[in-house]
Each structure stands twice: as structure tokens, then as C-alpha cells.
Write a structure and sequence with these properties.
The complex is a heterodimer of chains A (about 120) and B (about 110).
Chain A (H helix, E strand, L loop, with lengths): L9 E5 L8 H14 L4 E5 L21 H6 L8 E5 H6 L4 H4 L4 E3 L1 H9 L3 E4 L1
Parallel strand pairs in A: 1-2, 1-5, 2-3, 3-4
Chain B lengths: L1 E5 L8 H8 L5 E4 L16 H12 L2 E5 H7 L10 E4 L1 H10 L2 E5 L1
Helix pairs in contact in B: 1-2
The chains are: A alpha/beta (about 120), B alpha/beta (about 110).
Chain lengths: ~120, ~110
């Protein structure tokens, strides 16, 4: 994966934790749908969205579809450019090692650049 | 004894901090749904909820996390602050039965 944001991409910004409300799941489903349609999509995990990256998730006892399994499907739909906000990880005591196989960890300035160079932004 | 339930993450909602401000040593606090993130030991990375929990716990307040919600979110017991106990649905019912009233913070 190259480390420069591509212009004209749709950027999905995931800001919410999974399962507590529908936002995280709907964002993920939208990103998968975009990928399935052949559109170029990237994802930024920031603020409470970084909680979506924790593993393992066992959602059997809360009767919810497993979001971790869904997000594992992202590369199959060609959604491979995922970015993770470093400050949000630090604030929550999540280490880079915990999440590095899920995306590229970027600093504050690069987050700003990513937002500024995106074709459009869909925020969940 | 009041049972307080908090179902929001302290990082995007003031519910937990609001709850802790008025919780007493007689009370119990149960974190459910997205509230379970409030139990994680974040090494006090600038978060007021961790010190408030520590102080209240030392005075006698009991702190709990609902296991099913923690498991769903990948929040492992080992990552929790030491003042928290994991409970299941039956434990939730027992706490509710123990309380005079239940206050839900959302």
C-alpha cells in the first residue's frame, strides 16, 4: 500500500465505537458496497472509531453481526487504503502494535492532509 | 444503594464523568454497551474518569462491567482497571434487585 493519499477518492471517516449504535456497522457496509461497485474508497479510523480495531470481537452474546469479521472482508472488496489516527490510539492506550495489521498509523498533520485531499468525505 | 448504569464511551460522551460526579461510596456503577470502554486502564492518559473511579473505589463504590458487551468489543479482562469486576446477565439482575433505584446514564 502506498503511503500517499490519492485525490478523488471517497474517504470514509469512522468516528464511533462498534455495536453501541448502528453507525460503525452502517459505515462499514457502505464502504464494502463502494468497493463492490468498483469505486476507490479509503477509510480513516479516528476518535472512538479506533475501538473498531480491537480483536478478538465475540459478538455472539449480544446478538449482533460480528463487525471484526465484516471488516476483514474489506481487502476482498478492494478497500485496502486504511488510515489510523495516532492521537486517538494514544488517548485510549491502544498500542500501534495492536493495530498495525489493520492500516497505516498517521499523525495529526497527515490526518489533516488526508481530509483536505479527499474527493468527498462520508462520516460515520 | 443506587445502581448506576452507563452505556456511553467516556471518550465521546460526558455520561460517565457526569455519573461519577454524583456517585457515592454506597453505590454501584455498571458499565454496559459502549460504556465498557470506560473500564479500560488507559494509564491515565489525561482522562479524568480513571482517577475518579480510583478515588470512589477506595471509598467503597463498587464497579462492574457487563461481560457480553466487553467480549463483543474485544475488551479483555486483563486490560481493565483493577477496580472492575466482570459480571454476567444474572449478576446484572442481582445488582438491580439490590438497589433502591436505578439511574441510567446515556
Amino acid at each position: 500500500m502506498d503511503h500517499e493519499p490519492s485525490p478523488k477518492r471517497i474517504l470514509f471517516v469512522f468516528r464511533h465505537a462498534p455495536y453501541g449504535n448502528a453507525l460503525a456497522r452502517e459505515g462499514l457496509e457502505a464502504a464494502l458496497a463502494y468497493g463492490a461497485m468498483g469505486a476507490k474508497a479509503s477509510i480513516l479510523y479516528i476518535n472512538d472509531g479506533v475501538w473498531q480495531l480491537l480483536r478478538p470481537q465475540n459478538s455472539a452474546h449480544i446478538s449482533c453481526k460480528n463487525m471484526a469479521a465484516m471488516s476483514d472482508a474489506l481487502p476482498l472488496y478492494d478497500v485496502e487504503e486504511t488510515w489510523i489516527d495516532q492521537d486517538s490510539l494514544k488517548q485510549r492506550n491502544i498500542t500501534i502494535a495492536d493495530v498495525q495489521d489493520r492500516g497505516v498509523v498517521i499523525d495529526h498533520k497527515r490526518v489533516q492532509e488526508l481530509l483536505a485531499t479527499s474527493g468527498s468525505i462520508l462520516s460515520f | 444503594m443506587i445502581l448506576h448504569t452507563v452505556n456511553k464511551s467516556p471518550f465521546d460522551n460526558s455520561a460517565l464523568n457526569d455519573c461519577l460526579k454524583i456517585t457515592t461510596p454506597n453505590d454501584a456503577v455498571l458499565l454496559i454497551e459502549n460504556g465498557v470502554y470506560g473500564a479500560i486502564d488507559i494509564q491515565n492518559n489525561g482522562a479524568s474518569h480513571c482517577s475518579a473511579i480510583k478515588q470512589l473505589s477506595q471509598k467503597g463504590t463498587r464497579f462492574y462491567v457487563l461481560q457480553a458487551d466487553a467480549d463483543a468489543r474485544g475488551v479483555a479482562e486483563a486490560t481493565l482497571q483493577p477496580f472492575f469486576k466482570m459480571i454476567d446477565a444474572e449478576g446484572f439482575v442481582a445488582l438491580a434487585a439490590e438497589g433502591l433505584v436505578i439511574q441510567s446514564w446515556y
